[in-house]
């Protein structure tokens, strides 16, 4: 993803901007947290002014939303702080009203923010993936399932998990006096918004971070774009290129047959038989190359975005 490394970013004193894209209506303001210059995908803090209304409709890109403060009435249900929504591309949402106003985090994952008034799903929509849950009230804290594990005192609530990419969205907390004394990097991009205390980062893959200390505890919303694996070490001066090379070397030793198969010129176009029409390129799929062969396949519509209606 073509997003710059931004860390840390505190938006508290940044002025709100009016949302002017078609469909969203008056009374919606935003602060851009990070932005993909290639696809228009973005992460925003959004303020709905008291009385804001949005009719039933859908987006061409999948969207996630987390309520920070205030409340939203969606259809006939009132959603307060902690409410989380994962809305696949093309899934029609009921009318939205913010009677007394609200502040939310909004993430458009594979395309620019869009809204089209509609009372039905797009033909390509995957409604079975839609999620609505209150992260504060409906889920229990668990220890992290990252491997290797973080230090004790870090707890998570998983809100969304993508079985194909292993990307996930999660609420996490660190208890007072949490600390971890090593350096870490990951094979995925990751981002986090600190609900307690403010602050945001978007961190590309293979960037060193740590060590960590948290005197008073924290609560945050985190996201990754693929599997999160903790590559721990103790050298804060290694570059992203060196970290990537180390990660590739580890794969070579851990999965030598797979590494050799992927690396050879005759087998550089892996296909997942569970997703035969998803071969990469943009729109949230994994990039690939064709080597010296013509594999004669088609690129069906990705499920991360849906085709615009003509």
Walk me through this protein's architecture.
The structure is a single chain. The chain has 310 residues and is mainly β. The protein folds into two domains: 6-134, Jelly Rolls (Sandwich); 142-248, Jelly Rolls. Helix content is 7%, strand content 34%. The chain has helices spanning 240-254, 256-263; strands at residues 6-9, 17-18, 28-35, 42-48, 52-54, 57-58, 63-70, 72-74, 77-79, 83-87, 96-98, 102-108, 116-117, 131-134, 142-143, 154-161, 168-174, 178-180, 183-185, 190-194, 200-203, 212-214, 218-224, 231-233. A seven-stranded antiparallel beta sheet has the order 1-21-20-23-17-16-15, with no helix packed on it. Strands 2-3-4-12-7-10-14 form a seven-stranded antiparallel beta sheet, with no helix packed on it. A four-stranded antiparallel beta sheet has the order 5-11-8-9, with no helix packed on it. A hairpin with a 6-residue loop joins strand 16 (154-161) and strand 17 (168-174). Helix 1 crosses helix 2. The protein is globular and about 55 Å long. The two termini are 28 Å apart. The relative contact order is 0.15.
């Amino acid at each position: 993803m073509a997003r710059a490394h931004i860390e840390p970013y505190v938006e508290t004193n940044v002025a709100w901007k009016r949302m002017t894209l078609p469909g969203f209506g008056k009374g919606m303001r935003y602060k851009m947290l990070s932005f993909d210059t290639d696809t228009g995908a973005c992460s925003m803090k959004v303020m709905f002014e008291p009385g804001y209304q949005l009719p039933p409709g859908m987006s061409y890109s999948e969207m996630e939303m987390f309520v920070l403060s205030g409340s939203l009435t969606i259809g006939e249900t009132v959603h307060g702080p902690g409410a989380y929504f994962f809305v696949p591309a093309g899934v029609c949402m009921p009318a939205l009203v913010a009677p007394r106003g609200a502040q939310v985090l909004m993430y458009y994952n594979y395309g620019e923010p869009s809204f089209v008034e509609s009372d039905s799903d797009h033909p390509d929509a995957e409604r079975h993936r839609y999620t609505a849950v209150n992260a504060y009230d409906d889920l229990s804290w668990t220890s992290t399932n990252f491997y290797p594990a973080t230090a004790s005192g870090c707890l998570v609530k998983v809100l969304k998990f993508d079985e194909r990419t292993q990307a996930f969205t999660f609420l996490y907390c660190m208890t007072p006096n949490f600390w971890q004394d090593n350096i870490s990097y990951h094979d995925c991009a990751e981002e986090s918004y600190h609900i307690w205390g403010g602050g945001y980062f978007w961190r590309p893959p293979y960037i060193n971070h740590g060590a960590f200390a948290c005197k008073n505890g924290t609560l945050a919303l985190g996201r990754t774009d693929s599997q999160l694996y903790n590559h721990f070490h103790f050298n804060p001066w290694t570059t992203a290129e060196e970290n990537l090379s180390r990660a590739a070397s580890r794969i070579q030793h851990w999965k030598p047959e797979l590494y050799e198969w992927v690396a050879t010129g005759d087998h550089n176009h892996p296909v997942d038989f569970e997703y035969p029409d998803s071969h990469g390129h943009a729109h949230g799929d994994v990039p690939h190359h064709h080597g010296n062969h013509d594999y004669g396949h088609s690129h069906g519509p990705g499920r991360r975005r849906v085709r615009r209606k003509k």
